[in-house]
From TrEMBL:
Species whose genome carries this gene: Dyella monticola
Protein name: Phospholipase D-like domain-containing protein
Name of a matching Pfam family: PLDc_2
CDD domains: PLDc_Bfil_DEXD_like
Domain Phospholipase D-like: 10-71
Domain of life: Bacteria
Amino acid sequence: MDACLGLDQVKIYPPGEDVLFHPKVYAFELEAEVEVYVGSSNLTGAGLSKNHECGIFIRAESTHSKLQQFLNYIDERFDEASVLDADFITAYKANKKRVKDAEDELKKFTRIAPARRAKNSFTTTHAQDLRWKEFVTKVKNDTVGAFDMRLDMLGRIHKWFASGRSFQEFTLGERKRVTGIIFPSKPKNIDWGLFGQMTANGGFYDVLDDHTNIISMALDKIPLYEPVKWSHYDDFWTCFSLIPQASDGWIGLATRLLAMKRPDEFVCLTRKNKQGVCGYLGAPYSTMTLKNYWERIIEKVRITPWYLKKEPRDPLERKIWHCRTALLDAIYYDQT
């Protein structure tokens, strides 16, 4: 558009009109002949050279009445179109930037993979197929009988993040509860080991003591309210990997942190639930890492019926909805 600015032969139909201007008609006057193309191809590099398109070329003498109708049509549309000016180009660029993330999402197609149920799996619940009401019932029937405690725990942690403090400004006790690095795990009648207790890895105590600032910086990359995008997750992982000992195999601690800040978007993968969560989302659990967690888990979750449910009006269901992805642990945690 910048190159076309000031050219009298270039005009536009601004987006947002009541009727979308959508025809793909190209007419060429070739001395005594006219050639017309009518088809699906947009006037883009992909539309004219890469995509699979369908169209037809018609060529005849320039006096042919039917082909003249195409020329007249183009002339009439040109007369009623708008002049291309710098203000429109500025607005177009701003709007294109505004919807870039949505465009990127539309370009990516997430496939539903067949469920990979393990032979010794204690459940047959397919996360891909669950409708909202079924999901709510399954979550309430928590495999460890801690449904109310789960909601209480996540509600308290949300208040800490919503207070405006960063993770490094939390008290030591709050930081231990968020990370699941607390022993014993049940002070004040809440089992803070729900959703993934990290005390089994003794090195995580040192990580919390020595690298609170890095964990805090990583968590700051995840917004508290707006939709979480791949770029947010990528920024989180980039910061998290600054911990000297960290590897992409630290999926338990990293996803625990993510699920505590945004339980609507993330689930903590642990030894006790990984086989069920991954298996029933069609993802191989044995090769799960932080590098493929978004693609294999989060993208799969986001096309499930229970995740796509609009926010319910019922107060209890609304609480579940705001924690829905993390609550997969209530369905797939295997006590055996």
